[in-house]
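Re: Re: ligand-bound prediction request (bumping)

Still looking for help on this. To restate: I need the protein modeled with zinc ion bound, output as structure tokens. Inputs repeated here so nobody has to scroll up.
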Amino acid sequence: MCIFCDIIDHKIPSSVVYEDDQVLAILDISQVTRGHTIVMPKHHTPNVVEADDETVRTVFAAAAKVARFLKEKTGCAGVNLLNNCGEAAGQTVDHLHVHVIPRYGESDAIQVAFNPSEPQDLAEVLASIKG
Ligand code: AMP
Ligand code: ZN
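Reply:
Sorry for the wait, this slipped through. Here it is.
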């Protein structure tokens, strides 16, 4: 059972922001900021690394379209596009989705902070990744 598939099948109500043959974009039930939207493919696929390339292209292109739409309609100052892939990354619903989060300024209830770790030897990091 997948809650997003149930939403797509109209078994669970949702607030539709955008829809086409391939994707559905709905307001997130937990509005991090006003207009917080999640964009998902209409067929079930668990996450971005297991999805086929065409689905990834389609969903991220739709997320960009929704970001443009929200920017125009809400007057927000910026937008975060966020994908959580895997439980360790905060994914709670195992149906690929991209969060589109309008940003209104410092009073937002979201903080995206890239706190640097200790300085790294990039050559060593690259070698360990690429083998
Ligand atoms: P993630 O943590 O990236 O998997 O995000 C899942 C998101 O789905 C959360 O932000 C939830 O608030 C949202 N969500 C869960 N159930 C619903 C629902 N019935 N309608 C809209 N959004 C939902
Ligand atoms: Zn699903």
